[in-house]
Amino acid sequence: MGPIKEDNIFEGTGFDWDSYIIHRPAPTADFYQLIYDHHRANGGEFNLAHDIGTGPGNIAEQVGTTFKRVHASDPSAYHRSVAEHRLKAIDPDKFSTQQCRGEDISNAGHKHGSVDLITVAQCIALMDTEQATSGFAKLLKPAGTLAIWFYGRPAFADPSQQQSQIIFNQILSKALDRVRPMKGTGFEPATIMLRAFLDNVAFPEKDWKQVRRLKWNYDKPMLYLEDDDVDFEIKWDSKVRDGESEEKIIDRDFWAIDADVDWMRAFVDYALPWENKDEEKAQFDELFKELEKSMGGKGKRQHIAWPVALLLATKK
Fold this sequence. Notes:
This protein is α/β, with parallel strands linked by helices. The protein has helices spanning 17-22, 29-41, 58-63, 77-90, 129-139, 162-175, 187-195, 261-271, 278-295, and strands at 48-52, 69-74, 95-99, 115-121, 140-151, 155-156, 208-216, 245-249, 257-259, 302-305, 308-315. The strands form 2 sheets. It has an 8-stranded mixed beta sheet with strand order 3-2-1-4-5-11-7-8. Strands 6-10-9 form a 3-stranded antiparallel beta sheet. Helix 6 packs antiparallel against helix 9 (278-295).
């Protein structure tokens, strides 16, 4: 399982970014519109957006349909080159790219108070959050918007598919054996943040107003592992301030995908693309055979829902 051998799992020319994009949930037009409506309602302009941790540039591409210019950054030189190739082919004048950590972006040559929207999709858990959001506040114009989102573990929506969920959870746990032990590594704070449904991301009152925390399918775990699969105590301090808006929604059709076992396997392959030894591959093959049977057989599709957190904050 896994198309590449490099230690940095998304690095290297062997990684198929098109398949990666296909085999993951995609934010819908309504989701982006929700962000834009918040931005417009709070006096935001639609000139310059900055996509942090852009990966292959797919989020920057979507934001570019609404904003005049989009800058995309990523800490990986390889990711930046992939995004550059894809985005410049769309519109070389609209898009620009840069290699830079999210935490360092406010010191990377950009004029403070120049950005209208900052998007941070599926990467905030890998950052020093306090340092990153402080830098984002410096870049944004007054009335600019910070939009942070993260999706979690795929959830079988049909209650009759409980056994399929159990088997898939076992697959994820086994796939994550490669990063154990987690204690003391970057996976520890990332794990805690997902378990907290991003409630440990702070928006200090001196910088932010109109903070909204939206949680879809919050009754499903965002964390890819069960708590007892983790080798440290999961605890956090909630950073939700009085006056912030919390919106909890259960919607099994939100970002939903009707997926067969091949799609589920590709999701794991491209989300956690490690090269496996023959013994590991045989174990995965057996688990996916069990999953296929539980899902109803070859080609049978089941409704997959997603727990998603979206944080919106307006720069003072």
